[in-house]
Amino acid sequence: MSAAKLVAAIDHGTTSTRCILFSRDGTPAAIAQREQTMYYPRAGWVELDMEQVWQRTQECIHEALGTAGAGAADVAAIGIANERESVVLWNRRTGRPVARSITWQDTRTAGAADALAADGGIDRFRELTGLPISTYSSALKLRWLLDQHPTRRAAAERGDLLFGTPDTWLLWNLTGGPDGGVHATDPTNASRTLLMDLHTLDWDDGLLDAMAIPRAMLPEIRSSSEVFGPAAGELSGVPVAGILGDQPASLFGHTCFDHGDVKNTYGTGAFLLSTLGTEPVISEHGLITTVAWKLGDADAVYALEGSVAMAGALVQWLRDNLGLIDDAPEVEQLARSVDDSGGVVFVPAFSGLFAPYWRDDARGVIVGLTRFANKGHIARAALEATAYQTADLVEAMLADTGLARLGELRADGGMTKNELLMQFQADILGSPVAAPAVAEITATGAAYAAGLATGVWSGLDELRANYATARRWEPGMDDDTRTAGLAGWRRGVDRTLGLAAPEPVAAPA
């Protein structure tokens, strides 16, 4: 190995965990990935075995070091990126989880969320936390776990049980586990619990009381970029020095450091984040306010976030439920078999409409059908739906921030390989769309946070210089066509509303 050191990123996702070693120029020197088992014990329940996740993490570290021909001495720092709202509860002394992790997708707390929102509505805590009350947030899942066994709450109050999101679990184990493991998190993860005050970046006593969560079990909230402690194990002595939730890590990896910078991750769903600056803006247009990062002692930087439930998942639906395609990439070829969508509009509100509409009475519709329409038009309308949903989020962000227009959308995720979608996205936004040369942009963000804390990189300008664009799509649609397309989409959205049958009201006795 040369004297130029590597930075390791642990990128924990819902279905797999990876270890990527980055060189100083921001390019991967080695990548190792392991899938992990998802558990679905009941409808709406989605769980992970976090002992298995830790085992897979160690395997990935071992493989990545082997691929790069590197050892602990060649690694300057370790950063962690993770899916944010999942809950891990474990015994401080044995290091073993007391139950499987309840993941971000899990909806078992729907009744508890409704009960909490009955007094003050879903926005009851939005000014304080930036979040609506929902099944996403960690707090209600944690309370559910505490209530499942009579001894758990007392153990939590003594500090014998520890809580963390996946970053906290990985940090604790990386730094020794029961033998001196560091119990901490960063504000990007803590801001998704519904327990943290967005302004003070600390756990809020009023929120802890409302959720019935003992403070003694909570990790310390530190910054996203600082030395948390030295690693044990194969990376012994290497400082763990960066933690970012997955979507903020992607924003950071895209070097979206300035107010108004926007990125969208096109995966199963789509996640759009816009950098705000050091003052949080509470959305008036259906978006979430979250912490983007906090670098060392500097003020925290905030972001607005909006999510699309059905992006790549809609292509999977065309494949699995309708049989229109045999393989997901075929959707582009099918969509290119027609010149446009032929007036067909597909609004995939399969489980209601998310941001910026928040209508759980909506259901999916395909409208504008004529005898002329064929499967090519439906495929094209399905791809256009992802671009239109993104445009809705961008419009909400511009309204919240007062910015006149979007400069450029930085895009990552599997769907960026779809040239037709990316071009249509640029057209419908009237702004360029750019995809980075390094696809592993979430892990890049985690590595950057760790490398900044340990002097691998001198500052944000050096990271900006590393950023390279692999593809760029310039808008080519005229204003009249764009306006007509957006108007057709909005008419389609209107048709989705109220389609879910209301819950039957019991007749009076």
What would your notes on this structure say?
There is one protein chain. By secondary structure, the chain is of the alpha+beta class. It has 16 helices and 24 strands. Strand 2 (16-22) and strand 3 (28-35) form a beta hairpin. Helix 9 packs across helix 14 and helix 10 (312-320) packs antiparallel against helix 12. It is globular and about 70 Å long. The mean pLDDT is 94.
Descriptive key words:
509 residues, Nucleotidyltransferase, domain 5, seven-stranded mixed beta sheet, six-stranded mixed beta sheet, 33% helix
A few lines on this structure:
The chain is of the alpha+beta class and 509 residues long. The chain is built from 16 helices and 24 strands. It has helices spanning 50-68, 110-117, 126-129, 138-147, 152-158, 166-174, 187-190, 205-211, 246-253, 312-320, 330-335, 375-401, 419-429, 441-453, 460-466, 479-496; strands at residues 6-12, 16-22, 28-35, 38-39, 47-48, 75-82, 88-91, 101-102, 161-164, 184-185, 196-197, 202-203, 220-221, 225-230, 239-245, 262-266, 270-277, 288-293, 301-308, 345-347, 365-367, 409-412, 433-436, 469-473.
The percent range for helix content is 25-40%
Number of DSSP strands? 24
State the separation between the terminal residues, measured CA to CA: 79 Å
By CATH, the topology of one domain is Nucleotidyltransferase, domain 5
- Average pLDDT, all residues: 94
Output the structural class: alpha+beta
Q: Name the CATH superfamily assignment of one domain.
A: ATPase, nucleotide binding domain
What's the alpha carbon Rg, rounded to whole Å? 23 Å
**Poorly predicted segments:** none
Instruction: Output the strand order for the largest sheet.
Output: 18-19-17-16-22-23-24
